Amino acid sequence: MKSKLNLSPEMVNRARTAAAAIADAVTDFISKRTTVSVERTVLRLFGVDGVDADGVPLPNVVVDAISAAGHLAGGVSRPFVSAMMATGLEAQELAEAIADGSIDLTTLPKASEAQVQHRARALANSGVQRIALNRAKRDDYLSRLDGGQAPLVYVIVATGNIYEDVVQARAAARQGADIIAVIRSTGQSLLDYVPYGATTEGFGGTYATEENFRIMREGLDEVGEELGRYIRLCNYCSGLCMPEIAAMGALERLDVMLNDALYGILFRDINPQRTLVDQAFSRMINAYAGVIINTGEDNYLTTADAVEAAHTVLASQFINEQFALRVGLPEEQMGLGHAFEMNPMIEDGFLMELAQAQMAREIFPRAPLKYMPPTKHMTGNIFRGHVQDALFNMVGVMTGQGIQLLGMMTEQIHTPLIQDRHLSIENAKYVFNNARHLSDEIEFVPDGRIVQRAQAVLAEAVELLEHIVETGFFDALAAGVFADVKRFIDGGKGLSGVFLRSDDYFNPFEIALRQELGLGPVRVGVTK
Q1: Which of 136, 51, 48, 56 is nearest to 93 (CA)?
Q2: Catalytic annotation present for 64
Q3: Is the pLDDT assigned to residue 127 strictly greater than 90?
Q4: Is 221 among the residues known to form the active site?
Q5: Against a cut of 0.90, is the pTM above it?
Q6: Does 263 participate in catalysis according to the annotation?
C-alpha cells in the first residue's frame, strides 16, 4: 500500500522491532507457566462438559482435584488420561465419576508414559479435527453465501436472555448487519468458571456459555440462508476463562472473538501473568479455528484523552500484533482495535480522527481493523449524536476499515432499542455506499495537518515502545503507560491460578496446534 501519509518505513520498522523485543521477553516468561483456565480448556477439548450436583462446572472440579493432588504443574493431561486408561472410562464419564466421588485420581494405577502420550495425542487430534471441520463449514458457507463488504457492519445484542437475543439478532441481520456480537453479562469476565447451559437472566448482556453459542449460531445460520448472506457471530474471549471461551467458540463456530492481550489487565484488574498466559493459548485456538480476534485499544481512550493518548493505541496495536504472530495468528485474523473518541467540540477533530484511522490502515494493511464508534463524548442530543456516528462512518469507509462497530444515537440515554439499531445500520449503509471509492480519489497535503498528525503519533509510539523495551513490560504496566492505569505483576485477580510448569509439563493440544500452525516445539519440557 502506497502511504498517503508519507510514513517513514524506518520509524515503522523501529516500532515493530521494539514490539517484537517486548513480545519475545514476555513469551519467554509465559512459556514457563500454565494456569487453571488453560488446563480446564484442555479438558473441554477432550470432551468434558456439564456440571456436578452443586452446579460446579466439571472442568473446574477435575482441575481442582488434580491441583489438590499436587500435579497441576505438569498439566492435567497426564493424570487425567492415565486415569481414563486405568478405568476404561471416556473423558466425560471420568469427569462425572471424579465429581461424584466414586473415583479418586490419587489411588489409581499409573499408565506408562508412552501409553499416556499416545492416547493423549490421539484425543488431541480428535479435538483439533472437530475445530477443523467447523472451519471448513464456515468456508463452505462463505463460498455459497455473500460474506459482506468491508467495512463489515457490526452491531450488538444484549438482552440477557439468549432466546430474545436470537430474535434481535435476526432482526439486525435482516436490517443489514454483517456481524452480531452478543454482549456478555456484566462481570462474567471476573468469574473463574464458565456458566453452563442456556441462560435467560443476564444483566447488561447474556452469559457466554457453549449452549448459548450453539443457539445463536443456529439462529444466524437460519436467517443467513434466508437472506443469502453469511452472518458472523462474535462473543468475548477475555477474562479469567479466556482460553475456555476460545475453545467453546471454536467448537460452536464463532467467527469473531474479543481477545486482547492487555484489556483484562487494564480494565478488569486481572493479574498480568494470568492474562498473558491465557491469551497465548486462546489465540492459538483462535488462529486454528479461523476466528478473527478483536483487540481492545479503543478502551484506552475512555480513561485517557484521545488526542494526548493516541500514540498508546498505536503502541498497543504493535504489541498485540507481535503477541499474535508468536502463536500463529495471521495478520488477516487480527482485528486490531481503535476508536473515534476525540472530543467533537475540538477544532479539526475530524482531521485527527482521519489521520489516526488512515495511519492504522497503512501500518497494518492486511489486518481487518475493528473501528469503534464515539461513546465517551456521546450526548443526550440524539440528532448531534447521529451526526457524530455519520462522521465516524465516513472515516471508516474513507480509510478502508475492516469491521465497523456501529454507534447508536440513543446509547447515552438508554440501551438502544430495535428501531435505533435500524437507524444506525441505515446511516452506515448510506454513507458506505455513497462514499465507497472516495479513498481512491483522495491524497493528503504532504505537509498538511493530517500528515503531520499521523507522523507525530507514530514518532511518539516508537518512543514509548523503545522506552518499554528499556524498562521491561511488567514495569511499564506498573507505571501506567497504557490508559493511565497502573497494574502490578503480583497484583490483580487470578494470580493464585498461575503455576510454574514442571520440566515434564505435557499439553497435547499445545503440541498439536503448534504443529498445525507451523510453530516451533514447546519450549518447556514435553515429556519426561
Answers
A1: 48
A2: no
A3: yes
A4: no
A5: yes
A6: yes
